Amino acid sequence: MDTPTIGVLGTGDFAAYFIAALRNGGHTGHILLSPHSPAKAARLAAERGCTVASDNIAMLAESDWVLLAVRPEQLPSALPKLALRSGQVLLSAVAGLTVSELRSAIGNDVPIIRIMPSSYIGVLQDGLLPIYPGCAEVEAVLGRAGHVLVFDNENHIELSMIGACLSGWMYRFIGSLETWFIERGLTPDQARQIVVGNIIGAAGNALARRDISLEKVSDEIATPGTFTKLGLDYLRDKASFRPWNEALTLVRDRLNTFERDRCTTSQS
To answer: What's the whole-model pTM score?
Structure first.
């Protein structure tokens, strides 16, 4: 199906940037929005050429695919109302909610695809869009929204969610570097271009050279006697990279706790 009608349950930030990515990529299919949050739905409909459904029953009935994009705390009220028919596809953007849990909740055999894009896909062409499991039909449509990365292991889509947190952290990191340059005379725009331009350059180089380790790429640049080596040695002496790994572990542990608590609740 080249242009499925996509129903969206949940019209928060995730839905907004996901729909923006689809539209920016040329997707012209009909998009139906849940009216649960009327003001948000109306604004998104006006900005992105969507339609606000009369109610969730109508939205589900008229959709070929349904995007579940609610917050975890909204699941108890959302899942019982998720009545899908044979032939529909369910896309879930809910962190920590497994395919088997979704299958138990909806009680039929419709295809279930988990997706976990980052917020920047709404403005950045070809942003990363992880999915599990692979589905050629879904990949073709979502390919308009960004670069689809297919996982064949559900645990890996969870790791991609943790990885998506990196972009939120990076804004603060970039901001602190910007401030250093601004305090020394650059304009905010110049500082933004210097900092972000070098990060984009390094990221692009890392993706282009996936055949070698990033440590080797770094060593090729930070050679003895260079200013790059001077600064890198200082950062390594201060164990400056360790807190980032610790933050990833913190998020992973919290996600695991969330999943265990939800399973315990469902079994009680």
So the answer is: 0.87
